[in-house]
Design goal:
The chain has nine helices and 19 strands. This is Amine oxidase domain-containing protein.
Amino acid sequence: MESAIGSKVAVVGSGISGAVCASFLAKNGVSVTIFDSGRGPGGRMSTRREITEDGKELYFDHGAPFFASTNKDVMALVSEWEARGLVVEWKEKFGIYDYVSTKFVDIEKEGSSKKFVGIPGMNAICLTMCREPGIETMFGVTVGTLQWLEEKKSWLPVDMDGQSLGQFDAVVVSDIYVTSPRFTAVTGRPPPLDMMLVPELAFKLQEVPALPCLTLMLAFEEPLPSIPVRGFSFKNSDVLSWAFCDSSKPGRCATSECWVVHSTTEYAKRVIKQTGEQRLSTSTLADLAEQLFREFQGNVPNIPKPFFMRAHRWDTAFPAVAVAGDEKCLWDNSKKLTICGDFCVSPSVEGAILSGMGAAEKILDILTSFL
């Protein structure tokens, strides 16, 4: 792969698939620039920092609470992350809470696969990769248009204000938002990637249904003795799906008891139908937080009032289909473009990692073939 050295590649999105892809490319001598509209990396693996009124800092892994893996290639990478102190196994009791019997059932020490968490937060993995040699990361930058320069056989990303972001030999799209009609629903503009440029990919991406989720972040002064596990799923609930004690993870500050609660897809869909797809106001999010907490408190026994409570809406939390399968990513050789993400392989962190690896390999192959 030495012939790819010196090539310039733009990666749109700094979630785990984009970060893994960028890391693999940089290790093979490619100069990588990551563009992300957020304040930091991670996507659903981001860690939310909140400051209470009295100045207390709270941290929540409000997207992916942990990840597991059975794939040997991913496990080899995870072992490397463990050696670097980026991840550690989360060894706690997990179970199921049955709404009908109002009891915790199926409590187990460890599941069939190990649960890994980032240190000191889930975003640490992406953050570290985004800072590796050969990678420049531009946060707070939204790519408004990806222009294909036919004569130069290169790409020109342009921001929302029409400013050029540089010229690149190839592009990796790791954010489905870049090709999604939802970009138009929120911004009123066409998606950054004109799918007419890549008609074969347009057919595969014409509908990638995404399942939404609402997340509730809670902080309590004291531990919750009525909950005998540190993570559990809800059985027979139309509103809640999972709950995790974030502060029980290794490497977390345990001065407060912090919990993250996820809604069901069905409940999130009902909320979106009522509120629309636009960014929610602070008051609307506060109302949703209150509704979710009432559901949590009303069914799980002896839950006190938290001193902190906030809701977050993930509009595209989990892909409902996998569009690439064994190929791991989508690509167009002539345009030197790959598309990766969990929506290509499986709706999991492992799926996103595999897709990022596959996209990097494909980009290296394409760059080599153009030389």
